[in-house]
Amino acid sequence: MAAFMNDEAFLKKGFLISTDKSLLNIETIYNYLNNESYWAQGIPRERLERAIANSMCFGVYESDEFAGFARVVTDNATFAYICDVFILTSFRKKGLSKWLIQTIVNHPDLRGLRRWSLATADAQGLYNQFGFSQITKPERWMEIFTPYKTQ
């Protein structure tokens, strides 16, 4: 497994972050996003698989056990959107989400980006630690939002 931003404290505890998509537990990711997240409930599995295939993905592992996930939509030159970030319940309260975001924003392929973006309803405190803030000129941003239909 390729690890980035090796943090000795986590590595000594058996944790690793990897961008190797072959290690991802797609079933667990799908179940979490579809059933437990507030942002992706109702996502069709095929759509999630396409999103993963076309994104930079970060898996968090304890030994070989899947512990968390984040996806980055990026052109690797100017812009990145961080999404689908989660740590499974049994792995929370260990600092893994902070380590995951630190690893993402310091990843060699993402250095020097002009703009990072994300959306969150409840984790502003986590992202503030890495320089994220509310959009300063929201009048310039626009969106089309089409929520998934829950099953």
TrEMBL record:
CDD domains: NAT_SF. Residues 15-151 form the N-acetyltransferase domain. It holds the Pfam family Acetyltransf_1. PANTHER family: FAMILY N-ACETYLTRANSFERASE, PUTATIVE (AFU_ORTHOLOGUE AFUA_6G03350)-RELATED. This is GNAT family N-acetyltransferase.
